[in-house]
Amino acid sequence: MEKVISDSVLLASEILLLSYPEFIISQSGVFRLGFFSFANSSNRYVGILYNQIPVQTVVWVANRNKPLKDSSRILNISDYGNLVVSNGKAEVVWSSHVNNTAPNATTAQLLDSGNLVLSNGEDGPSSLWESFEDPSNVFLETMKISNDVKKGRKVEIKSWKSPDDPSDGNFSLGIEPFNIPEVVLSNNNKLYFRTGPWNGNIFIGVIMKTVYIDGFYIVVDNQQQTYYITYEFSDNSRLRYYELDSQGKFVKREWDAGKGDWINRYSTSQIESSVYGQCGALGICDLTKQPICSCLKGFKPRNIEEWSRGNWSRGCFRTTLLQCQRDKNNGSEAGQGDDDGFLKLKTMKVPVFPNRSSINNGECKDQCMKNCSCVAYAMHLIDMQKFSTHGVDLYFRLPSSELDKGKSNKVIVIAAIIVSTVTITIMILFLWCWLKEECISNLAICISERKQKHKQKQIKLQLNKGNAMTKFSTENVGEYSIRVKLQQLRLFNFEELAIATGNFDHAKKLGQGGFVPVYRGILRLEEFMNEVEVISKIQHRNLVKLLGCCVEAEEKMPVYEYMPNKSLDTFVFGISRGLLYLHKDSRLKVIHRDLKASNVLLDQELNPKIADFGMARIFGGDENQANTKRVVGTYGYMSPEYAIQGQFSEKSDVFSFGVLLLEIVSGRKNTSLFNNQDYFSLLGYVWKLWNEGNIWSLVDKVVLEPKSNLKNEKEIRRCIHIGLLCVQEYATDRPTMSTVVSMLNSEISNFNTPKQPAFTQTPLITHDVQNRASVNGVTLTDFDGK
């Protein structure tokens, strides 16, 4: 029979004996302290476990490296005021090891947080010792993984050797300042993985799967040289914790009462190139290439044979010395001869940096040029990784000869430009005259991967009865037609689009999309009318129509109908019907993944149309969700399961729609309250006002105007209610788009009570770093050159 000797406190006069057995239970009953063992093992341990659940779940172990073997085992407060574990021979196998001035007044209390605290009356409210400062493999809420540089004190979590052996494993997770804090994972005390520098809001140089958005934040005190990372869940209705498992994976576990077991909500995957220094010094890791490691431009592998076998750890070496290095070798002053230059490397994971400052790009470059040991705008170029999105810009120093390679045809190019200028001028004159007489229609052209050389590309024309006729070849289009099955899609030639846009005239540029610029172009009426039935099987009045595309050499250009009223900022109705069509009614089930205000356009009648399907994914008929390692989208609109786990479904679009709906009602962007002391986002602000019954202080004055589409309080309240239902933290709690459409149309009158939205926890408490985060990545010009 179990015996509880106290609600939550062990007094100096009390002991725990294994033979009874006895437990200390936290006040709320969530945790218990006592002896435990594993199946098929005679080893016994003292630890903290979750209470009142059928699965034995250990969150802390006292004697993890010294298991008890005999039948007599005791946990008590010693005569010296230490918490100790003893065996049957009265030998101490574990102790808290503190200097206690009042041992008789000492108590050990198990808190509701899972923290075991040893304290006495004489030392005031501060504890003598606590389990949160000597953790095992579990990272509990409000626990602090810390680094006190002055005192040389680190608090880290350390993995178990195996799932049923809590002794020290190979992996440990801690925080390192590096003058700019980073969370690091070590394998046998060697740096194994690093997150990149903390800029005050996020770890820069890593993809958006950062766990800080789930309540994590870092506290920095550079004066005291103390740093720690902790987290607090905004919703405490579920049992959740993080664990560093024996394989080195950082896992978020959540109790599922229905299944009666723990489920993994998030798990870091062991990506090969994420291992620290996998490609060696001056090597770059890129998962999209094979092999994944390559040398920087101007460098070669130190050992070709090892490199070819997949051993890249020795890295690369420079094939041509920098100018300043050559000057020193020649005994002359540095700076003579041609200056070195810098190669820009985009979307990179940043190396470890010694310093950070607010100097601009030019100043950073000048400082680096004055220091011959500076090889880039950063000193230590190891652990570099190339990302497909986000990341930062690295400016890498190269000799001018290396920068000029690949430009040997420069003279020829210049000559071609001079010759083509005359041709283009004549072409424009003919085109202008032709457009004056021909009927035209509007379209918008999205240019993808259009290189600089195409701005100078000569347009070949053939004169035929006074009209400018385009002459082109489709020899390189066939392979694309087969691969993407474009039987119903018009393939435009590059020259056609160049003519339609005035050779991509800047005056016809409509704006900048997520990856590409967007231009307005014009086609003759008969050409435009041929596109009316293009991809009709997936057309909808609330989707921007795709007219065709151009696939030629390196050019890939979708062609869309032109929306004269630019982006949606104040209208929402119709968007829900467009999403419902994508999710349910289209012959292809499509998940948009980047729904936001700027991706909804208005036609001349102000009908909203969803645009920008560059990140969309097509699902099969029986497919409901998918996972990706490449999380793309816009901060503030991504659902938590997508941003953190890479998991997306139609409920991800529902979340984005909810954010958009609340933005429209409030007249605020979701990220407009990012630096607010009380609210992490607009969602947290709306949630607070909703619970206070004060939603009218939220509503934009424009929405309250008599001419607004939202005519009365009932409609406004309905929109806010629907928005909150859409942005609930868990996808299973959110409605489908068909339900949303019915609610908006008043077909459903009884709504569920919304649960707390995601991303409502303020993520940052920091003393020194005040810079805001950037979704699109940052440049390294914030760091001192060395």
From TrEMBL:
InterPro entries: Bulb-type_lectin_dom, Bulb-type_lectin_dom_sf, Kinase-like_dom_sf, Pan_app, Prot_kinase_dom, S_locus_glycoprot_dom, Ser-Thr/Tyr_kinase_cat_dom, Ser/Thr_kinase_AS. The chain crosses the membrane at residues 411-432. GO terms for biological process: recognition of pollen. It holds the Pfam family PK_Tyr_Ser-Thr. It comes from Gossypium tomentosum. It is a single-pass type I membrane protein. Belongs to the protein kinase superfamily. Ser/Thr protein kinase family. Signal peptide: none annotated. Its EC number is 2.7.11.1. It is found in: Cell membrane. SMART domains: B_lectin, S_TKc. One of its GO terms (molecular function) is ATP binding. Residues 504-759 form the Protein kinase domain. Its main location: membrane. Residues 9-131 form the Bulb-type lectin domain. It comes from the Eukaryota. It catalyses: L-seryl-[protein] + ATP = O-phospho-L-seryl-[protein] + ADP + H(+); L-threonyl-[protein] + ATP = O-phospho-L-threonyl-[protein] + ADP + H(+). One of its GO terms (cellular component) is plasma membrane. Keywords: ATP-binding, Cell membrane, Disulfide bond, Glycoprotein, Kinase, Membrane, Nucleotide-binding, Serine/threonine-protein kinase, Signal, Transferase, Transmembrane, Transmembrane helix. The keyword Nucleotide-binding applies. This is Receptor-like serine/threonine-protein kinase.
